[in-house]
Amino acid sequence: MKNIFFDKGSAMHRTLAILEQVANSDQPVTSTEINVNLNLPKATIHRLCSKLEDEQFLQREIDGKRFLPGLRLRQIALGVFSNEHFRTQRHAVLKLLSEDIGETCNISVPDGSQMRYMDRAETHWPLRMQLPVGTKVPLHCTSSGKLFLSLMPEEQLNRLIGSLNLEQKTENTLTTRKSLEKALEKIRKKQVGTDNQEFIEGMVCVAVPIYDRRKRLFATLSIHAPSSRMTLEEISRHVPRLQKASHDLSLITDPDDN
């Protein structure tokens, strides 16, 4: 019996090729773009994408024309990221960083229109913010969320911002598109996300990107502290340490095959 994984004309191979195309794209793709890259019949692409959408492996963007990873595909990616082999190495880097800085450190990943905490190393200070692994936080008022937004392709960013609920969490929350876009421009230049008591009053936070080999952000590394212990300026002095740890984490999670 022929192994379907090696039959390039099989439905299985075509389905996996579409998933790979969507997963590896820097932004949502149209069926036409899938056709150009994979040279599959349009009817086949439409049929397979519809099936993958029904099964939640793909989902359509707001405009209904572009496909991006669906819930089940994202869950697979998160499952790989959470694999015990990677988690042990990753947490060791996170714990060392937390002990070095003396504050809580977090790894977050994009999850739809939010960020999800994937791992964290807690500080031993009695006064600390406790947001457990798995917690989802907004994009517009967190250091990781704003960093993720700032590094998006412009067209995709414009579509996403238009759909976000810029809910006011504190007095410092950016609640207008204009103010958020201005902040994102500054973050984009420095590639450092900041949260100056915008999500939780009394908490400051900075975040740096974790890139894969293609220089795409797939996660963020952040530290947060009570503003009574550190100002935003003071916590920002730890950015070089975060950037070094971010590099180490990228090598663990997405190593060079060579």
Automatic annotation (TrEMBL):
Keywords carried by this UniProt record: DNA-binding, Transcription, Transcription regulation
Domain called IclR-ED: residue spans: 72-255
InterPro entries with a match to the protein in the record: GAF-like_dom_sf, HTH_MetabolicPath_Reg, Tscrpt_reg_IclR_C, Tscrpt_reg_IclR_N, WH-like_DNA-bd_sf, WH_DNA-bd_sf
Residue span(s) of domain HTH iclR-type: 9-71
GO BP, one annotated term: negative regulation of DNA-templated transcription
Gene3D superfamilies: 3.30.450.40, Winged helix-like DNA-binding domain superfamily/Winged helix DNA-binding domain (1.10.10.10)
Domain of life per record: Bacteria
Gene Ontology terms for molecular function: DNA binding; DNA-binding transcription factor activity
Keyword Transcription regulation in annotation: yes
PANTHER family in alphabetical order: HELIX-TURN-HELIX TRANSCRIPTIONAL REGULATOR, ICLR FAMILY (PTHR30136), HTH-TYPE TRANSCRIPTIONAL REPRESSOR ALLR (PTHR30136:SF24)
The protein's name in its UniProt record: IclR family transcriptional regulator
Organism per entry: SAR324 cluster bacterium
